[in-house]
Structures
1.
Amino acid sequence: MKEKKLDVYELSVVLPCLNEELSIGICIEKIKKVFEDEKILGEIIVVDNGSTDKSVDIVKTKYSYVRLFVEPEKGYGSALRRGIKEAQGKYIIMGDADDTYDYLEIPKFMNYLRQGYDLVIGTRFKGKILPGAMSWSHRYVGNPILSGILRLFFGGKISDSHCGIRGFSKVAYEKMGLHTTGMEFASEMVIHSLKKNLKIIEVPITYYPRKGVSKLESFKDAWRHLRFMLIYSPGYVFILPGSIIFIVSFLLTINLVRGDIYFGGRNWGMHVLVFSSMFTLLGWQLLNLGLSAKSFVQSIFLEQGKIFNKIVKFVNLERAMIFGLTLILLGLVIIFYIFYVWWKNNFGPLTEVKTAILALTFIIMGLQTIFTAFLTSMLQIKYR
């Protein structure tokens, strides 16, 4: 059995670096000053992610006490994951190397980490944003919207989910189980911490104008954050819209089968029924996909959704198959009824098109249910 590596330092500060020759030295000197003033036994780790300027040379020649690593895989998350992996501290503080974050504020983070908080996140919005530090679109549109979506989807009260300076314990980081390599790493850290009920707190900070050229690609990076949150939220992507579409469409279908609906000064019948039936099937398919996706997310990321777990235990493969077969049988009964009506009319003219659409809808729903039950069961397979 592999022995667990003991912490060598109390704190490791990890700085991802990409062409930061104007600011990397300033950040290192501030961190070193905090170590000396606060008597912190710590280390500084710089992870270069493909710099083409003098950043690496500056670190090598002026700051020999800094641990320098080169991460060939591109991406903000890749650089941070490498640095955190190499860190030997009990606690880790990560932040950008462009001097936008004041590392003299490290004691604020250490205070809460020593109290037992798992994740301490800086918040620029509850602190101070200096002129020129953040564009209008990021300050009033991008960051608030993305942080709001994260709160809506995953709960919590994080006001600045994309703040780059944050501290956490090595133990908490291992519980998070992070995988992403790009800018969405910041969102993933918050989401996993919330889902695994880690102890989180925000710390107001001051945000400064960066030195050098920004590496942010506003729309691309925003989409990566949003994309990750959506992929991780089957309830909002599949189950919620699926439920709304299915309920509305199914009720409309049933009413139209019984007879035309008078609305807006005219009768609505066959054409609307065709569309309502299609949307009923769409809604049912989204619900089925949501069940499979939710099952996958919970099994892979080891989430503990009590309500969903109870549903899954009750709606197992066998019960779902029985329900699907019942829907198919219901559709077949309706088809037999149509055949009976036709027989009663001596196989003459047949006007049961609406009833036939309803029968087809039930049969397809039944087939969707059965196949989804098998898919969900496959996604729940666990191997040691």
2.
Amino acid sequence: MTESTPDTPVVPDSTGAEDAAMAEEGSKARQLLGMKGAQSGETSIWKIRLQLMKPITWIPLIWGVVCGAAASGNYHWDFRDPLLAAACMLMSGPMLAGYTQTINDFYDRDIDAINEPYRPIPSGAISVPQVVTQILVLLFSGIAISIGLDRAVGHEFPIMLVLTLFGSFVAYIYSAPPLKLKKNGWAGNYALGASYIALPWWAGQALFGTLDWKIIVITLVYSMAGLGIAVVNDFKSVDGDAQLGLKSLPVMFGIDKAAWICVAMIDVFQLGIAAYLMSIHQNLYAVLLILLVIPQITFQDMYFLRDPLNNDVKYQASAQPFLVLGMLVAALAIGHTSL
């Protein structure tokens, strides 16, 4: 007679449920940040508004203000200057970058219906009148802050207001017909690159120092690297762009050739800035900038050039920190020469 053994209790495997919950939370976080791959389903109007403003895009503009302040050579760690810098960052990031992203989504709602139908406007999560109200509130808030900054530092010429109006105009013609600069891959991506590198740099420099033509030219050259970064974002929407006749670089040149153009722009113009730093005898900073370009080239080979359609986000996350650190290195070098 065989002795029977009690059945072993079956313990439910919770791993799958936990993974699903973590994936859902990750999707919600990406949704709020305005990142690629975020799914719909949010019902809070304030979270939807935040998603339209794409907080992930504020970071380069906030960093650009830091670079401009550093390049001015006149930033002081006292009570006043950090408050002014914070106000300038608020203006450049949440207000004006938020305005730019919202107006872009507004005019891109037909493209998003093809490429990203889960975005707030094509999904119907927010109405068109609500979007228009958000655009106006963000724009006029940015203008109000710029006027306050001009008065706070005693500018005779309202340079902060002028930069705000100019940047807002560029953002409008980038997204809105009849010009809609983003129809052309070169003009649109350069406008985007300059908006993320040159404009916030100018704001920080003008707030704490003097914005001269030399700085304007240098930052506009640096913005050519920003053009390359902007092209990275075009790969995710190549199908919708082609259907709607938008001439992005991936549409015009094909995936592989556009990827090479993209990385060439990113690398060559950063190296050009390094050469400029050598010309003004800032050799240490030039070497540091070159060393920061090297890991970018490595990640370009590892991720982007091998599969730009699927590795665009991974490439940006790994390589862009080195680019923005390079911007600060260049700014510190320029600020050092002005002391």
3.
Amino acid sequence: MDLMVLLIQIVVGTVILAPVLWLAGRALVGKEKAKFLDAVWIILLGTVIDAVVIAYIGGLVAAVITFIVWLALIKHFFDCGWLMAFAIAIIAVIIFAVVVAVLAVIGIGVGLLLGI
């Protein structure tokens, strides 16, 4: 994987996904456990680990490993259990989908945000 692509993924992920993850975390575990900097660390570490696992393993096995890693990062940084980490991930995906839909309605597509 190209280092520049990884850096772009980290920056875009941090800017777009960290606030979404933070909001989902705050909604489910509270503001004491879900700090914004923790959400940034989850996105940063998750993106790097994801890139490494996909580069060396790939396929369905990599997808399962990265899914577990993302849940483990949420569990660790937001100080919650596995089920709550899964719920936070689901809520974050829903929030992200709503944000993307609203941006699409007002004419700002995801491609524009991602530079595609």
4.
Amino acid sequence: MNNRLTLLWAILVGIAWLCAGCADAPRATEPAPTEMPAPTKVAFAVPSATPTLTPTATFTLTPTRTRTATNTPPRKPTATATPAPTSAPATPTPTATSSAAIPGEKYGTLAVIGARHAPQTTVSDVNLTVRGFAPTNAALTLVEIEGPADANAPRLYTLFADRRAPTIRATYQVRDHTGALITDPDVTLIALAATSGDTLHVPESGYTIGDGYGVLVVFADAERIVVTYTRDDSTIRGYVLYFEGVSVEPSLVALYQQANDAGRGTLPALRAGQAFARARGDVRFAVRDAGTFLDPRSRKDWWRK
């Protein structure tokens, strides 16, 4: 009996030990499959976000570099275009010069008698653009001004080859030496209608200045010319006519520059009716007498026939 109990107890102890071993085996292996996937999923989730951010940053930088590279080429053409305008005027200048030439015209010089000065020291006396002027709303017609008239004064209807009546496009007031507008008379500069290429001629008068000449050129450049009906190198003696915005005959400009550089002992002289420039469009015109700017619209003084 005792032997049987002892054997039974041994069997039960063995069974219990085996059961205990079986129970411990799953606990050792279960954490491995459960815990390994979890860290693996977390590990993949983090790198997954990192690559996503990296392309985003790369994409943002790429357009910025592209814009910088794109802006650089336009600057190069701009720098290249700068010399183009510089050389461009050189091309039109010969064209304008050749179109301003008046075939058959030859110009001479005449010794200056009386007042002499160098216009470059009083630029505003010969260049109305430097002096300045402003538009006014005065009538665009000839006007009747009371008082005596000089029968020998320049007759401005002979300015154009067809001796036509003037069409006034605009009126202006010239500034004095202080910069203030001259308001008496109320118009001191006008724009006369003309077609580009029209020849401009020395207005006839009852005066001559010697050797068959009618006027002395006291200033000339490519765009303007100033003539006086005396042999004085001055703009404050006798009648003085200003023509602005025209194409002065190139050989006449060259002759004036030569005389100016030589000391102005002689200056170019023109005969009544001689062509001296071509219109570029409307011709701006002003007149002075004894240094005073007068109304160029006055019919009895300038436009009588």
